[in-house]
Amino acid sequence: MNSKLKINDIIYAALFAALTSVLGYVSIPLPFSPVPITGQTLGVMLAGCILNPLQAFLSMLTFVLLGIAGAPVFSGGRAGFNIIAGPSGGYIVGFIIGAVVISYLKGKNPNTLKMTLATIVGGIIVIYFIGGLWLNHVTQMGLYKSVIAGALPFIPGDLLKAFIAVSIGKRVSKAINNKVAA
């Protein structure tokens, strides 16, 4: 396997880091949770559905590193290492692993079911698991309360985002594949 980065890898990584950043401005704070509802998980899911695992990894790593460096890419235009160290930091770090898991599980020739399951596993379960553990660590609220505050309120919206990501991902992947074949 050729491990050299291609220009497409860098372009896709930058594009999906930017998309995820923009989706962070769709942010709804919840009075009962230190973690807001954002559009960023849709960006993670789209990256996983459309990109290969390396590109998905690079896109979310770029997103996280930009935020740590001070670019206002995290939800609501926030930035800095303090966001990663805070209650929502585990979810943000989970974006990196989640996007790679989605991309890996969907495989090279995904069908709708495979892509949907990959998106639910990587885009919801993986991110919630890492985020919930970190939320518990930072807040000391206990695992049960961390799940109640940091996962349950987000499941319906993230399931909707998963179906949107699969629908868009299938169309974009098909268009990219048709362009490559032409």
TrEMBL record:
Its main location: membrane. Keywords: Cell membrane, Membrane, Transmembrane, Transmembrane helix, Transport. The chain crosses the membrane at residues 12-32, 44-69, 81-105, 117-135. Pfam families: BioY (PF02632). It is found in: Cell membrane. Gene3D superfamilies: 1.10.1760.20. It is a multi-pass membrane protein. Belongs to the BioY family. This is Biotin transporter.
